[in-house]
Amino acid sequence: MIIVLRPDATEEQINHIVSKVQKLGLTPHLSRGTQRTIIGVIGPEDVLRVTPLEVFPGVENVIPVLAPFKLVSREFHKEDSVIELGKGIKIGGNKIVVMAGPCTIENIDLLYEIAKEVKAAGATVLRGGAFKPRTSPYSFQGLGEKGLQYLREVGNELGLVTVTEVMDARDVGLVSGYADVLQIGCRNMQNFNLLKEVGQIQKPVLLKRGMSSTVKEMLMSAEYILAGGNFNVILCERGIRTFEDSTRNTLDISAVAVAKQLSHLPIIIDPSHAAGRWSYVPALSKAAIACGADGLIVEVHSHPEEAVSDGVQSLIPSNFMKMMQELKILAKVSGREI
Amino acid sequence: MIIVLRPDATEEQINHIVSKVQKLGLTPHLSRGTQRTIIGVIGPEDVLRVTPLEVFPGVENVIPVLAPFKLVSREFHKEDSVIELGKGIKIGGNKIVVMAGPCTIENIDLLYEIAKEVKAAGATVLRGGAFKPRTSPYSFQGLGEKGLQYLREVGNELGLVTVTEVMDARDVGLVSGYADVLQIGCRNMQNFNLLKEVGQIQKPVLLKRGMSSTVKEMLMSAEYILAGGNFNVILCERGIRTFEDSTRNTLDISAVAVAKQLSHLPIIIDPSHAAGRWSYVPALSKAAIACGADGLIVEVHSHPEEAVSDGVQSLIPSNFMKMMQELKILAKVSGREI
Amino acid sequence: MIIVLRPDATEEQINHIVSKVQKLGLTPHLSRGTQRTIIGVIGPEDVLRVTPLEVFPGVENVIPVLAPFKLVSREFHKEDSVIELGKGIKIGGNKIVVMAGPCTIENIDLLYEIAKEVKAAGATVLRGGAFKPRTSPYSFQGLGEKGLQYLREVGNELGLVTVTEVMDARDVGLVSGYADVLQIGCRNMQNFNLLKEVGQIQKPVLLKRGMSSTVKEMLMSAEYILAGGNFNVILCERGIRTFEDSTRNTLDISAVAVAKQLSHLPIIIDPSHAAGRWSYVPALSKAAIACGADGLIVEVHSHPEEAVSDGVQSLIPSNFMKMMQELKILAKVSGREI
Amino acid sequence: MIIVLRPDATEEQINHIVSKVQKLGLTPHLSRGTQRTIIGVIGPEDVLRVTPLEVFPGVENVIPVLAPFKLVSREFHKEDSVIELGKGIKIGGNKIVVMAGPCTIENIDLLYEIAKEVKAAGATVLRGGAFKPRTSPYSFQGLGEKGLQYLREVGNELGLVTVTEVMDARDVGLVSGYADVLQIGCRNMQNFNLLKEVGQIQKPVLLKRGMSSTVKEMLMSAEYILAGGNFNVILCERGIRTFEDSTRNTLDISAVAVAKQLSHLPIIIDPSHAAGRWSYVPALSKAAIACGADGLIVEVHSHPEEAVSDGVQSLIPSNFMKMMQELKILAKVSGREI
User: Under CATH, domain B83-333 is a member of which superfamily?
Assistant: First the structure.
């Protein structure tokens, strides 16, 4: 932590700050420049982070030196984390994992039909929503537990790992009873009680970036889960909110490189929610694989005209198949495999 | 709903869309222009909103005509809503309501000390957090129920209405047992299950705008609460996330005018979280009153150097007192009263 | 400047950085913490700002301590600058200056008609565009010099100061031959050659904030003008670009308080371009005056239905008059005058 | 254009709007729905775009149906445009063009040294700045004409096409006398007089997206150049401004797919300015090629520690060489060639 003093800071003010720092068990290190005096603070920053040093008289600015996350950081764990998803599928290593399926689970036949298609194309994880966060209270809110049953049934039948969203801390037990991977949606990235709850289980958690969260804030949310004891976290970049309106969100493709530098956790891309239009999904998926993402989560629907949600951004199976063939080649020349 | 067709849309495609619209019980209205054909759809838009018309072959664009919210809209309820907060305090009418207090409830003596000061200055609602959403799992997470007890005790002693945040659907019963007004924090503005839960009670709900939510999305979240049966909702603008980094968030002062045009619900301003620095709070508070906000929620702390959270943005009581005197004059010349 | 080293920085790397700093004539100040070593650099930061220290091996991060602007800073000039606009009008002192008029100068009769109205309401500066920055090449681009002639004629007739935009470095001589104040539009805030050119004259410059520029960047652009020798700069906040779409831009009302803390230059608000709708203009104008802005620039048109540009955001004279009466009262209770 | 009327619009108001539309030579098409009446307007939208219909009494909203650009649109020109850059190099076809070189031209020896390296790696266009837009008036502003001479000399010597920025309408003649391609920087994307000036020449123009401009606004700026008669425009996505602060800007990788859908013009990516750090450049470059960009513009410097600008984001030649080898493979499996 570095404390920058105002040009008119008095000796009394400086002493007051220095003594506060010492009282917290840290070592202040005074450096008097020509235009500003600064105090470097040596010792664990955490103690200072919660002390509002900016309000101390004479302080102009307080600058943290260390990142606020620990367990998720590359410094804490140098190697890439490889996470077991179940049924022999791992993410974070050489193998790129593609998760695909409908936005919402509508009925078992349709889910099975789509699941067969995505499996045939090379997906190993089946996605599908049973609890749906909808901006309107009048929209269909998902099948709930019945949807979870369908998902498990189809997943088992086809040997696919399953992932589905959990929206409520009260449902963590229920959802983890059915699904292999629990998704935390972007609107819940800072639902800290939900994060604590999934920190108590051992099933892998797919943590989606909030649409106005920085990569570092996503890592802080992951820190909640790891701090609870669950190290099986997969990050997911799904587009952030900007002024650009040609796409539903702006895919922050750089987040892959940034997250991989700061953290050991695997990171995947959701091109469907980023683009908001199926026709952009293949281009974004290719970009994701080329730049080093560990996987994708893609919306696929065999009858998008009839989909109860997100039909606009769902690929039909034939387009998904075509895209997967291209992705496999890209993965291969990048030294990986789908 | 207006469906804009591609210049190369075929008759067959047009017929397919028209028959879909009719099958949904709506009336299509074809208009063939020189450069585009458009289909105006007459009837309730809700049915169409969930139908992914953009994926129908031949469709270029789909444009909604109506706002997606109903109960919160000015069209549904022409007059300003006036909401009873308890202890005779109402919001939304001629009287401007100032809510003030510490960010976090730390202990009962400190809370009492601050509460006495804010009451003396003219605040009628005491704020204080018992459950704190913190970006770091290692930060103090609040006193929980003990904090709620202190809040109720101090509120009753001084005759102040109390407001505190509820972060978890499981705590709605607990919190509403102690506090007069339940706050939904900005990170939970789209925690739909929590919104449903506070829609089931009758206590007033202070709904904070998400930091990357539009005003219309805030109104959609309010719609969840009203749709559940609780019409006692107060909106709160607290700054949105932008690229500007001199302030913690960017106060969207226009949100007051926008919300008042679209909705009948009262709206207040939180200058403390918007600014992130106490020295900017008076200027923003004056702007809020001058432009027609129904109230303020302000962080006040008698010892900001020792505050466990948000000390940097807390006013000390003497500055709060000074600001309140100025606000009272501003309110008066604006035809209102504090 | 503070240089934060990587945890694995070697002694050799540290020595390399230290010797670079010394070679630049600065004094390095090493501080070895438990988790990071940092190097505080004492001496003028400018030299370092252009040295890419981040690429030196062993460097994790480089943190500037000082603001990059000088002449515009409050530190350089403690008192508020008061700038003479001509015809006895000054800005930056106790008197609030209201600039008003049509977006575009269309013809002399209309300009005169509007000018009379805004003068009657209390405006002392007449605005009107002769050179118009239009996003479409097919839109009307302004009357050019003829518009400037009309502006001067009407200004002189009515005793109003005049302000108009200059878009091109080649036109600075021409425009300053006619107008009292030269406006740099938001799209040109970082047109550095244009800034240099208006730095060479002595007429006041109204510098509008770029729609994606921070307050500090606006101050850096002002620095260009002051560095050229022209200290007569008035800042203008006119809304920034965000995701919110209910208003044309998001008025960053906090910019007034931020700019006044960092700089001695006067700052005004443009509520018309911020809102993009005339009905929001009065609320934003009141907010501006209440929070300490030194003036306003408002679009007024007597026949907005016929306006060639920005009719949607123009007040009609009677609404402008009504607003001015309210603003005068607000100014008075704020200890100022319109 | 679609005009949505307020629920309380009177017949008189409707007639007033209808007659205005007819007076403009267009055909109104009334459609009375259950909740709103709408007027579809048939005929060229341009006429209406400049008429402020929103201020007509009874109007709730005005919705354009057509894009405002013409010559740049895919509708106007179905095939991808292929643009000749000189020395046999074309962009927009099967061959991907890599432009590389230093941010600023510092001296001829260094430029030659870097140019040889980038050519050896496969770049065919040499970039280098002679006129530099700098946020500080105290920073080095470029060598000016001497820099242009060096660029031409080195380009000719090595058989490389040259690209350099023109910042000022007054310099278009000068710069086009030396360089093969003229770059319009992001800060000048809406410097309309500069756009008009480069519309008058026939040399290719590299148009960089403004950091807060939408893709559609970039296309409108390109429209200025084409409308002037110069159809040789190359678009460039270089990152937009968002709240994310791990990178200098947020690369909007989707812009490639969006621009290619809306327009026939080629589009390239600038990963260096987007990332702001050299270590992220290879990942972003790979993403760009994989998703279909027509080229790259990359900063390369052989001594980044000594670079006078942007050293932090410049690749050293060996890293550039390594990246180019990977890009060639990616291009090949994507059916293209570098």
Answer: Aldolase class I (3.20.20.70)
